[in-house]
Amino acid sequence: VMHIRKLLQKMDRPNGLFPNYLNPRTGRWGQHHTSVGGLGDSFYEYLLKAWLVSDRSDIEARHMYDSAIEAIERHLVRKSSGGLTFIGEWKNGHLERKMGHLTCFAGGMLALGADGSPGEKAGHYLQLGAEIAHTCHESYDRTVLKLGPEAFKFDGGAEAVAVRQNEKYYILRPEVIETYWYMWRFTHDPKYRRWGWEAAQAIDKYCRVSGGFSGIKDVYSSSPTYDDVQQSFFLAETLKYLYLLFSSDDLLPLDNWVFNTEAHPLPVIHLVNSTLPGNPVAR
Q1: What is the number of domains present in the chain?
Q2: Which of 143, 158, 173, 213 lies at a 20 to 30 A Cα distance from 203?
Q3: How far apart are the first and last CA of the chain?
Q4: Which cysteines are cross-linked by disulfides (predicted)?
Q5: Does the annotation list 261 as a binding residue?
Q6: Which residue numbers are catalytic?
Q7: Who's near 179: CB < 8 A, 6+ residues apart?
Q8: pTM
Q9: Per-residue pLDDT tens for 12-43?
């Protein structure tokens, strides 16, 4: 993995962005499609978290993360006519003004990575994370059920709403609540708990069934129908982040724990000097 990461670091990247596809035969980029949501999300997340779990000693990972975030902000982050900040997708040389529910995790990632940002950018990235959180909340608030769609547009008069029928579903995804939790931990702004409680109430009202919880096929319908699936990430992530959102900060403090992309906590590898010079050990 480290060898692959070094190769990726050395490769030329279109506009400084990491495309989603790499040809394993040629070692070159495949389709020039870049997304912070599906297919690309965990890559950026793990650059930051590799640095954090190493007790901030993995400098290569941090440099790659900072470079990627600068390119993302320059080429993918835009503000809608209604003043909502969103992260689009780069496809075939142009920006698609659509944001996926999966991309909503980025608000929390930006907040998590704010400390340690180059220059005086810590406050800037925390604010950008807050703007993404606000946009994703709007995607929930503008539906009938107060649950967010799979993807939402900022084009042709559409503002944080799904326009295609196959993007109007909600499958118990955690990314928006994940961002609420990170924003709460770093700001303690009560609106994040309020927004999280709104989502929890909507999930309980519209998704609870006799055998558990189900996804919804259309969040804009006042007569919702179920997809009859309870996703594993609902238990691993959605409910866990809701629980943490309303818990004290000393439960899994972020100085000592890093959550992987499925919300499993991993201990930070704090390094201390052992009795042998130059031989750090984990504690």
Answers
A1: 1
A2: 158
A3: 24
A4: 104-136
A5: yes
A6: 150
A7: 104, 105, 106, 107, 108, 111, 129, 132, 133, 136
A8: 0.95
A9: 999 999 999 999 899 899 888 999 999 999 99
